[in-house]
Amino acid sequence: MFSVLTEIQDHFKIGDDEGGLLQTAFVLSYMICAPLFGYLGDRYSRKWIMVLGVSLWSTTTLLGSYMNEFGWFITFRALVGIGEASYSTIAPTIISDLFVGEMRSRMLAMFYFAIPVGSGFGYIVGAKMASIMNSWVWSLRVTPVLGAIAVVLIIMLRDPQRGQSEGTHHMQTTSYKEDVKAIMRNHSFMLSTAGFTCVAFVTGALAWWGPKFIHLGLISQPGNEHVTLNEVSLIFGAITMTTGIIGVPLGSYLSQRFNVKYVKSDPYICAAGLLLSSPLLVGALFMVRENIYATYALIFFGELALNLNWAIVADILLYVVVPTRRSTAEAFQILISHAFGDAGSPYFVGVMSEAIKRVIRVGADALSTDSYLSVEPSRSIAVLSQLAENSTVAMLQDSPPVEDSPLVQFRALQYALFSTCFVEILGGVFFLVTAFYIDRDRSRVEAVVLGCQLELSESSASDGNGTDDGQRSPIGGPAGTSGSSSIGFSAASTVAAS
Q1: Rounded mean pLDDT, 448-465
Q2: Among residues 105, 126, 288, 303, which is most buried (max CB within 10 A)?
Q3: Is the whole-model pTM more than 0.85?
Q4: What is the pLDDT of residue 165?
Q5: In a domain, 477, yes or no
Q6: pLDDT tens figures, 408-435
Q7: Phi-psi category of 405—alpha, beta or left, where left has phi over 0 and alpha has psi -120 to 50?
Q8: Where is this region: Disordered (predicted)?
């Protein structure tokens, strides 16, 4: 949808604020439903929860493309988020139950690099389909096909026991209230989630407004009137996809490389990525109308540094939270990071953009009048004071939509997008503080896992036949079990690939 945002705005006759609200509606339903799927994922069959969720995602995406009223369109956009929540919450916990140690980090990198890569691929496919079919709706109608493929792959998956890879699959689950309390007292988890929230804020804003901002910067210059948004979206998508392919595995590699000697290296790598990305994106915002090639280069390295975080943050969650609480922790992280991150950032940037447009309009009208030009210097302060008052009134009133020039739209979006650079610096600070607690919280989980393994060994020895019939979960099977305990290499590959 990012690649056809301008066409959607033209079709429904909406401004930047309502355009940003489309993404906000999606993320709001996504984050609200995440805790529900976290609760279910720690207790019931994860495979079938994901099958239902992805099926809902595909169906609502397709139906939304047939809606001609903005109210219905945004409703179906919100329903898409429910399906997204099921998969994003549960899939990482399945990977954690299949792999451990460095192999888990590698598999998580394979999983999370699909987020920026899929986003970039969406720009390319969406823009191309809209161009071929000469209608933006076809950018939405192609994605359900990919959703159907995902459903088939998930059905082929055999759900492993929770904690299987660490030998803690007989660990008893606790109440949801106890899980939430334990998670909220986990300093490493809460601080890394705050840092990741800043990543989500920036990612959401750039993904939604990046192509349109670059396009406006180009067409506001003489000689570039022929450049289309689809062309810009293709390039932006290729950059996003490439930085995901490189950045996510690079972050995982750096983590594995430095964790051997420095146990606090993970939060430091995340902090470095955010603090490096901020000045690069500032440069890109300034360079759009000066040198487009330099702009794309700065965006490339800025997104590359930003993408270092994805796999590392997921790995931090898995090694500072015990196995029976990981789905709940994933859901909690999704709720926080999206509630204060990309749920609001597209809308926030859109509202800022519309407000700045009004200020520019009033300012341009006042400063271009002959009366202002003839004002004596002694009265100029009074005139400027009146200008500021008029600007404030204009922002508070519901004025009819005005067709702004590309340059005005560009400037408004440019000033609004500067907010993302400040958020990146804040995220870097959160990760630096995480480093103070991460060694302690990681050791606590390792102690719990070791204790469970020793208890299981003692129980097996007392049985004399290597089985443990005493530990049963509240839902009727071995604790944490929701399917067959055997799993083959092919199923593991399926999870990693999907």
Answers
A1: 66
A2: 303
A3: no
A4: 57
A5: no
A6: 888 889 999 999 999 999 999 999 999 9
A7: beta
A8: 458-498
In a domain, 86, yes or no: yes
Domain carrying residue 130:
1-159
Select from 17, 7, 82, 125 the least CA-distant residue to 353. 17
Domain assignment present for 375: no
In tens, the pLDDT along 255-283 reads 988 988 888 999 999 999 999 999 999 99
Torsion-angle region of 403 (φ positive above 0: left; ψ -120 to 50: alpha; else: beta): beta
Q: How far is it, in rounded angstroms, from Cα 236 to Cα 300? A: 9
- Return d(Cα 154, Cα 87) in angstroms, integer: 10
Mean pLDDT within 457-472: 53
Neighbours of 378 (CB within 10 A): 7
Residues 57, 84: contact at Cβ < 8 Å?
yes
Predicted confidence (pLDDT) per residue in 104-140, tens digit = 777 777 777 666 666 666 666 776 777 777 777 777 7
CA distance 326 to 41: 9
C-alpha pair distances (Å), 354 with each of 27, 60, 191, 288, 421: 21, 30, 33, 20, 19
Q: Tell me which H or E stretch contains 132.
A: helix 114-133
Last residue of a domain, one of 97, 129, 159: 159
Domain count, the chain: 2
Three-state SS sequence of 430-474: HHHHHCCCHHHHHHHHHHHHHHHHHHHHHHHHHHCCCCCCCCCCC
184 and 140 in a common domain: no
Residue 281 vs residue 376, higher pLDDT? 281
| Residue 310, pLDDT above cutoff 70 | yes
Q: How far apart are CA 475 and CA 405, in angstroms?
A: 62
Q: Given this model, what pLDDT does residue 456 score?
A: 61
The least confident of 16-30, 365-379, 483-497 is 483-497
* DSSP symbols for 58-92: HHHHHHHTT--SHHHHHHHHHHHHHHHHHHHHHHH
User: How far is residue 431's CA from residue 271's CA, in Å, rounded to a whole number?
Assistant: 5
Whole-angstrom Cα distance, residue 83 to residue 64?
14
Is 256:109 a contact under the CB 8 Å cutoff? no
- In a 13 Å sphere around the CA of 404, the CA atoms on its Cβ side amount to 26
Is residue 129 exposed (0-12), middle (13-18) or buried (19+ Cβ within 10 Å)?
buried
d(CA 462, CA 238): 59
Question: Residues 122, 192: one domain?
Answer: no
DSSP state, residue 157: -
CA 494/CA 311 separation, integer angstroms: 18
Neighbours of 419 (CB within 10 A): 15
- Other C-beta atoms closer than 10 Å to the C-beta of 137 total 18
Quickly tell me which residue has 């180009």 as its tokens: 218
